[in-house]
Design goal:
The protein is an alpha+beta fold. The protein contains seven helices and five strands; from the N terminus they run E-E-H-H-H-H-H-H-H-E-E-E. It has a three-stranded mixed β-sheet with strand order 1-2-5, with helices on one face. Strands 3-4 form a two-stranded antiparallel sheet.
Length: 180
């Protein structure tokens, strides 16, 4: 597996399997399901390249959408806290979403929760909503207004809503599987 940015700044990834060409090894692709790995690899590459662009998700599978939501919200939470390794407290957000996020950045009929628990409709609606905000240039696409520190206290965001760091977007990693 590999990932890189092209000249347009898009994150690209590639998954390939050379086991049969290198010796007696069994082809990973013939024995395992690559579709289980691809969304995880895409999420990882997006986090590592620190991009926050949301793509059009018309032909995107549910697991990829969930990975996008996770990476998008995790990146924004880390921006809010100023901590590169901050972990999103999903259960706290479920119980007190209003403490973390202003309604401006959410849909009235979709509650945030741990992305693996989101249904296809919720995931699609959130991504389309944020993508539309991004396309219209309505200020930041998304902001957390506060984060929870290690003592469990709510702390206001370390950045203001007008900072350039939050106006970034999340580009879709363009990938392919090399079926050698």
């Amino acid at each position: 597996m590999s990932a890189w940015k092209n000249e347009k700044g898009e994150v690209l990834f590639r998954m390939h399997n050379d086991n049969e060409a290198l010796g007696d090894g069994d082809s990973f692709m013939k024995t395992k399901d690559w579709e289980d790995i691809e969304p995880v690899w895409q999420e990882y590459t997006q986090e590592q390249f620190s991009m926050l662009l949301l793509p059009d998700i018309m032909d995107t599978k549910l697991e990829e959408k969930k990975a996008m939501v996770r990476a998008f919200l995790t990146s924004h939470y880390r921006i809010c806290s100023g901590k590169d390794k901050a972990v999103v407290p999903w259960s706290a957000i479920v119980h007190s979403q209003d403490d973390f996020v202003a309604w401006t950045y959410l849909l009235a009929d979709v509650d945030l929760k741990e992305p693996s628990k989101l249904q296809n409709w919720d995931t699609t609606a959130l991504l389309q909503f944020w993508h539309a905000r991004q396309e219209r240039g309505e200020g930041p696409t998304f902001l957390f207004k506060a984060w929870k520190n290690t003592d469990g206290d709510m702390v206001p965001s370390v950045i203001s809503g007008n900072e350039k760091a939050t106006a970034g977007y999340y580009p879709k990693a363009t990938g392919f599987v090399d079926r050698r």
